[in-house]
Amino acid sequence: MVKQTWFYDAIIYIYALSLLFYFSDFVGPNRSAKRMGTGLLSFVWVLQTIYLAYNLITHSTPMAFSRFETLFVLSWLLVTVSLIINRFVRIELFVFLINVFGFAILALNFFSNPTISPTLASWKINDELLFIHISLAVVSYAAFVVSAIFSGMYLFLHRKLKSKQWSQQMLRLPSLENTDRYAFLSVVIGAPLLLLTLTLGIVWIALEGNYMLFFDPKVLNSWFVLLAYIFYLFQRLLLRSPGNRLALWNLAAFFVTLLNFVAANVYSTFHQWS
């Protein structure tokens, strides 16, 4: 059995990337994104299948399978089911959600296994989980910063055009349509990554065994951040709200994100930056 976490880390990152493409296809039908998501998820399935095949060969009886391998089989089955459904039925949200659940099971299974050694000798296994958690969080917050900047540009350009105040600087800005689209695409990247970040955070808390951390201000506010961006997507995709209203709400959601950092530094018991 693989003892170093680099193999499992690779599966986790590829799995997360496949879910990002699936979410992109869900919010706006995109055949390229769906093909990428399906390809990456299929690769995850191949890696899992190789692992399972190796264990079937090395174990003399099925009864030799441990809890680790049983949960691994469950995650493999969820990936298999999602690929079959994705092939025959177009239910992108179901495929995304079932794989978020499978992602959580896989992460909990990997990082709760005492026989696996971290890639870096100086780390503990939970440190490796925390590294993946933080790396996904950083990318999601970076996407939210980009989205907020585009929304600010949208409001600036919208006000100038409405008041017919033309300037040379306006010619160097993208159109209102493109600015709104770039802000939207940034949220499409940030929101699912934040969901996966929170999923890994739940796994980390479960492994630590301190369930009061679920009520930590940073954890609770992170859910508010996710809900704020989900509501932004809801307004854009279902309510078809005008661009200026979407930009205002996107900036409001980013303000909640900034409050999240304040909560982490001032009130959180384990997310402090200084």
From TrEMBL:
Gene Ontology molecular function, alphabetical: heme binding
Entry keyword Membrane: yes
Bilayer-spanning residue ranges: 6-24, 36-54, 66-86, 93-111, 131-157, 182-207, 219-239, 246-267
Classification via InterPro entries: Cyt_c_assembly (IPR002541), YpjD/HemX (IPR052372)
Keywords: Membrane, Transmembrane, Transmembrane helix
Biological processes, Gene Ontology terms: cytochrome complex assembly
Pfam family for this entry, one: Cytochrom_C_asm
Superkingdom of origin organism: Bacteria
Name of the featured protein: Cytochrome C assembly protein
Cytochrome c assembly protein domain sequence ranges: 69-269
Entries under PANTHER family matching the protein: INNER MEMBRANE PROTEIN YPJD (PTHR38034:SF1)
